[in-house]
Write a structure and sequence with these properties.
heterodimer; A: 113 residues; mainly beta; seven-stranded mixed sheet; four-stranded antiparallel sheet; B: 115 residues; six-stranded mixed sheet
């Protein structure tokens, strides 16, 4: 079955530590996205990538980094520079071009110890 | 810049009652419009989308939404709510100008269903 997988489901980070969230899709989608969701808020775009080896900052990119070495993978690293990393992180993908429909993974909840 | 407002943070309805969730958007032209549903701790599932044509669109799970250009609205409706509809609902808007694929989301409406 085609879909988007995110791992782990829960992730704990210690102070000063970098952590990496995984996102994999087998939908053959060109574009991939990372969103952050805080309680009672909508989704805010962190980074997106429309093609392999290229990515762009979203609205809240500070303290995060990404890579897009393969079409099916778009890992997100939450660096120690992100002072408030506790949130629910959602990965999405879509076919490039329009009209546009994004498909979402199940999410990773990041907690700071 | 585009924006989406969902005026109701929480809504409670009785099972079997009708439902309407409000969504207002700000965009320079006719955007692409979406409704997503999120169960607790899960990702978002697409309920329906509007791109063009008939302003009343049908989605999954018995939901429908109506695009009203004059009111800049895209309200979600369901004639009879089931307990399993309890979730958070997000309205989103995307540009229709081939310039990118970015979606802007509203803050969400949490739906609770009373037995």
């Amino acid at each position: 079955d085609g879909g988007i997988t995110q791992s782990p489901k829960y992730l704990f980070r210690k102070e000063g530590q970098n952590v990496t969230l995984s996102c994999e899709q087998n939908l053959n989608h060109d574009a991939m996205y990372w969103y952050r969701q805080d309680p009672g808020q909508g989704l805010r775009l962190i980074y997106y990538s429309q093609i392999v080896n290229d990515f762009q900052k979203g609205d809240i990119a500070e303290g995060y980094s990404v890579s897009r070495e393969k079409k099916e993978s778009f890992p997100l690293t939450v660096t120690s520079a992100q002072k408030n990393p506790t949130a629910f992180y959602l990965c999405a993908s879509s076919t490039d071009g329009h009209p546009e429909t994004q498909y979402f993974g199940p999410g990773t909840r990041l907690l700071v110890l | 810049a585009q924006s989406v407002t969902q005026p109701d943070i929480h809504i409670t309805v009785s099972e079997g009652a009708s439902l309407e969730l409000r969504c207002n958007y700000s965009y320079g032209a006719t955007p692409y419009l979406f409704w997503y549903v999120q169960s607790p701790g899960q990702g978002l599932q697409l309920l329906l989308k509007y791109f063009s044509g008939d302003t009343l669109v049908q989605g999954i799970k018995g939901f429908e939404a109506e695009f009203k250009r004059s009111q800049s609205s895209f309200n979600l409706r369901k004639p009879s709510v089931h307990w399993s509809d309890a979730a958070e609902y997000f309205c989103a808007v995307g540009p229709n100008n081939n310039a990118g694929n970015m979606l802007t989301f509203g803050g969400g409406t949490r739906l609770m269903v009373k037995p």
